[in-house]
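Bug report (template v2)

What were you trying to do?
Predict the complex of my protein with iron/sulfur cluster.

What happened?
Run completed; filing so the output is reviewed.

Input:
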Amino acid sequence: MVYPVVEHFYTLQGEGYWAGKPAYFIRLGGCDVGCTWCDTQYSWRKEGWPKVTPEEILGWVRNTAAVHVVITGGEPTLHCLDALIAAFRSEGYFTQLETSGAYPPPTVLPDWITLSPKRFKLPHSAWYAHARELKVVIHARSDLDWAEAQMRLCRNDVHAFLQPEFYRPEALGWILEYIKLNPHWRLSLQWHRYLGIP
Ligand code: SF4
């Protein structure tokens, strides 16, 4: 099994529950969800990236002090992730998967699933039982109602985050107001963008 790797880097997780945690990111190529405001459009292409084995990827991570690995995209579940997740698990890494849920979950589940559902292509229903974290990007005010409906599909102990779309400054105001009235949500900011790190 080989994976198309767009980029990989050791940095801090900038978003959601694990914000501030040092993490090794593996960004896989390919996404057909089509979010109009996507900040990683360069990763949509599925082909043309270096094809890398799980063992090679593990080698990159082993060269750092990372204990937390993030598999992201693109939409990483376009690929069969079983071999990659199993490789990380076999060496004791805490593995976080960031997904829109557009495709069914892998057979080998990671330690932590961050489900970031998109209105452009709805998640496969199997994700809701597995997601430990729900992260909804708010671009329009109506996204708040949609986020609430998504949360109702998740397990009771899900950690729920609303994140303003970076180039939509008014979204932050909507979220602050909404969270104070609906305290089961928390704010997620893209700290890496404010800090100027990958
Ligand atoms: S799912 Fe993620 S990578 Fe795909 S278009 Fe949406 S924001 Fe971009």
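What did the reviewer find?
The mean pLDDT is 97. Residues 31, 33-35, 38, 40, 43, 73-75, 100, 118 surround iron/sulfur cluster (CB under 6 Å).
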